[in-house]
Amino acid sequence: MAQPTRLESERTRLLNCLREINEDRDKVDLMEASLEKECSDTRAKIKQLTDGDYAIAKADVDRLRQELGQPPLPSLQSTLEEKTAQYLNERRLNGNESQTASASQNVANASTSANGNGNKRSAPPATPSTEVQAKRPRGRPKGSKNKNKASDGS
User: Fold this and answer.
1) Low-confidence ranges of the chain (pLDDT < 70)
2) Distance between CA 68 and CA 60 in Å, rounded?
3) Where is the composition biased (Low complexity) (predicted)?
């Protein structure tokens, strides 16, 4: 009699696990679609920037650099790929911690400065570890009461 009950509870547990897995898959599908849309929007924006004013300005800068005997600047795409590789390498080395937000902000800032909008600056990202290091103990230091009485009595 206990065996069918145990089997039924196991079946219910497995069905709940399967339901959770399917919900997670649906969430992942939605997130994937959202990321794909964001990527395509970003690519379109990069293409618009590189084909527009940036291309004209880069041609002028490269011409001036050539007159000065300097090599031309690398393309925007190669700069973005270099920054992306650097970000991915740092993320691989440091793990997948809270650095994802600050590192993606650094890549976004690097792409902003590379696409000619370098006049926009942002504040450096605040790291929570510096706040923890700056904590000091509260209250009176140990033994300070006794030291003051000893110096007053002498």
Assistant:
1) 1, 96-134, 136-137, 144, 146-154
2) 12
3) 106-119
> Of 113, 104, 114, 54, which is closest to residue 84 (Cα–Cα)?
104
Residues 80-109 have pLDDT tens digits of: 899 999 999 998 888 766 545 555 555 555
Residue 140 and residue 148 in contact, taking contact as beta carbons nearer than 8 Å: no
State both tokens at 26. 């649906």
Q: Look at residues 143, 100, 147 and name the one whose alpha carbon lies nearest to residue 125.
A: 100
Residues 34, 52: Cα–Cα separation, whole Å: 27
Burial of 50 (0-12, 13-18, 19+ CB in 10 A): middle
First-to-final CA distance of the chain: 87
